[in-house]
Amino acid sequence: MHYLVSVIDDTAGLATDEEMAAIHEFNDRLREAGNWIFAGGLADPSSATVVDNRGDEPLITDGPFLESKEHLAGFWILEAADLDEALALATEGSKVCNRKLEVRPFL
Amino acid sequence: MSRGDVQQAITQVFHDEWARVVATLARRLGDLDLAEDSAAEAFAAAVERWPADSVPPNPGAWLTTTAYRKAIDRIRREAKRGDKQAEAQMLFEDVPAQPLGAIDDDRLRLIFTCCHSALSMEARVALTLRLVAGLTVPEISRAFLVQESTMGQRITRAKSKIKTARIPYRVPSAADLPARVSGVLAVLFLVFNEGYLATGCDADPVRPDLTAEAIRLTRLVRTLLPEDGEVIGLLALMLLTEARRAARVTADGELITLDEQNRGAWDAALLAEGHRLVRERLATGTAPGRYQLLAAINAVHTSARRAEDTDWSLVVGLYDRLVRLDPSPIIALNRAVAIAERDDPAVALAAVERLKDSLGGYHAYHATRADLLRRLDRCEAARAAYDRAIELAGNTAEIAHLTRRRDELP
């Protein structure tokens, strides 16, 4: 079972060096335990571009698809047996990256 | 057996066996929805057949077998409609075998799943009442004064989240157990409180069906987790509270406060059981948790033959321990009420007024303040505080009590 663990950020700052070091170490542990599928950090939402080609012509617009105080700062894709395992990993992840996380199952 | 006896037997079996049938099926089928529907169908079959065929010697086994057959029938029917994938999933996605422990019971798995912290509190309450207690959706909707369709959707959404997010069907590990048990107890206490202090302007002030259901569920949890002190504490707290029910509201629906209740109208059997449980916990010598302390406070109150005989120093002492465990302003407010009795209302009022920022929107804050101001003969301030309390209160009996107290001010 795969879970998307989104990092929700309400600060403007990137992860500090200390946070990055803790995240790398956490990722190593995820790999060893067989939970790691993928992880990545994202650039600031102001660097986002929205593409909409549902109509006659493609529409390219600057900025994130929704403006909010909180934004997606990165994510993990984890392999876990069930929600309890995913929540336990996310509990640890939230501590190491010092951000709020959202856990959501893939279909 | 007469028809009436069979009806009564079916009701009893429903009470005793519903949770076990749903829980066993949920484990065997890996699907809560299907477990619930087929358990309901099996009980419907019992209602139809037992009056003619008589009640089977092992009604629980009959119901489980019947429900399981009905579930398999449905899976086959749905498979014929082309849902082969669903069939494969249901039949083979069984929960892996787990070591048998003292607390290995499907009903416990069911309770922990229904009370999982990934579900909203509203959903936990609704699921527990439906799947563990066996209340129908219309019954639960009436109890919580929401539309049947809303309650139905709440339960459906919760079951769907359990399935999609894969909330596991198991008893938590020993390390997680205390936190998870405390989550279960919070659900049961909320059900009890909604029965004991029902909200809603058209609602009955007390709903004995909900308090009885909460007590029954807590008894079940106690059977399943006999060593847990907090489970015993919560059960004792409920029993000592429920014992006072008949004395708590007048015939015209006005709340009677503890000091004015007719203590002879308290239920002696419930009190005796509650007191025995509190003594049992005290005898273990282990540090009591929140529910055990609340039960102990209630035991002190209900041990006094007259209100003026209450050992207020002991009550304050228990609140002091409770404040250390749970520094919430509501506990501090209740402690202040005990301080008013042990010391005097002026000291208590000062303590209450320090809570204004956190409890300013809570009716009990204003009601407590109003009562203390009244006792200090500060009538105008008391009147304003009663007004605010009445405005914020949701329970009709409490509103009637506060209104009378306000109108009696000189």
UniProtKB/TrEMBL annotation, chain A:
Q: Which residues form the YCII-related domain?
A: 1-93
Q: Which SUPFAM superfamilies match?
A: Dimeric alpha+beta barrel
What Pfam families is this protein classified in? Answer: YCII
Look up the coiled coil feature and give its residue ranges.
Answer: none
- Listed InterPro entries: Dimeric_a/b-barrel, YCII
Q: Which family does it belong to?
A: Belongs to the YciI family.
User: PANTHER family from the entry?
Assistant: BLL7171 PROTEIN, BLL7171 PROTEIN-RELATED
**What is the protein name given in its UniProt record?**
YciI family protein
From TrEMBL, chain B:
Give all residue intervals belonging to the RNA polymerase sigma factor 70 region 4 type domain. Answer: 111-162
Checking Pfam families in the record gives: DUF6596, Sigma70_r2, Sigma70_r4_2
Query: What are the residue boundaries of the DUF6596 domain, all occurrences included?
Result: 180-280
Q: What is this protein called?
A: Sigma factor-like helix-turn-helix DNA-binding protein
State the superkingdom: Bacteria
The RNA polymerase sigma-70 region domain extends over 20-80
- UniProt family annotation: Belongs to the sigma-70 factor family. ECF subfamily.
InterPro entries hit by this protein: DUF6596, RNA_pol_sigma-70_dom, RNA_pol_sigma70_r2, RNA_pol_sigma70_r4_t2, RNA_pol_sigma_r2, RNA_pol_sigma_r3/r4-like, TPR-like_helical_dom_sf, WH-like_DNA-bd_sf
Asked if the Swiss-Prot or TrEMBL record annotates the protein with the keyword Glycosyltransferase, the reply is: no
Q: Which UniProt keywords apply?
A: Sigma factor, Transcription, Transcription regulation
